[in-house]
Amino acid sequence: MNANGVVTSLDKIMHWVTKLAFLNFLWIVFSIFGLFVAGVFPATVATLNISRKWIGGQQDIKIWKSFKSIYRQEFISANLLGWLFALIGLVLYFNYRLLAASQGEVIFIVPFAFYIVIFMYILTVIWTFPLLAYYQASIMRHLKNALVIGLTKIHISIAKVIVIFSVLYLSLELPVLIPFYTFSICSLVWIWLSMHVFSKLDNRSISEKNL
C-alpha cells in the first residue's frame, strides 16, 4: 500500500471513529433531554435508525438533524414499547425473587415454565427495537414478529445477546468507553445483525410475490 493509500485508510478510520463518538454523544444527550425516563427508549431507536442508514449506504446524512427527527417521530411508540418491556421485566424480577425464596416448595414445572418465559422475553426485546427502526408497523405486529424471528433465527438471537453483553461488560471494565462508544457500537452491531435477517426476509417476500 502506498503513502496515499495509508493516508486514505487512516482518514476513513478517523472519520468512523468521530461519527461513532458523535452518535454515542447524541444518545446520551437525548436520553438526558428526556430525563432518561422518557428519553432513553426513543434515543435508542434513533441510534439504531442512524446506524441502519449508515449500513444501508447513507453515510453522508446529517446526523444531528436525522437523529432529532427520528427521536421526535418515534418518541411515543418507543416509550410505549420500552416501558411495556420495563414493566414486564419488573414483574419477572419479582417472580424470580418469589421462586428463589420458595426454596424448592413449588413443583419443577413452575421454574421451568418461568425460564421459558424469560427466554421469550429476551428474544422479543432484542428484536422489537430493530424492527421499530426498520419497518413501519403497529406495536402488536412488531411484538409478534420479534418473537417469531427471534425463535426462527435463534443463532442470530444468540449472537446479539453475546455481542451486547460483551460490549456492556467491556464498557464496565473500561468505563472510559461509555461516554464515547458503548451505545453507538452496540447499536451498530445490533442493527447489522438484524438487517442481515431483514434483508433475507424482504428478498424472500419479493420472490414469492413475483412467482
UniProtKB/TrEMBL annotation:
The keyword Transferase does not apply. It comes from Virgibacillus natechei. Keywords: Membrane, Transmembrane, Transmembrane helix. The lineage of its organism: Bacteria, Bacillati, Bacillota, Bacilli, Bacillales. This is Membrane protein YesL. The keyword Membrane applies. InterPro entries: DUF624. It comes from the Bacteria. Pfam families: DUF624. The chain crosses the membrane at residues 20-45, 75-94, 106-135, 147-172, 178-198.
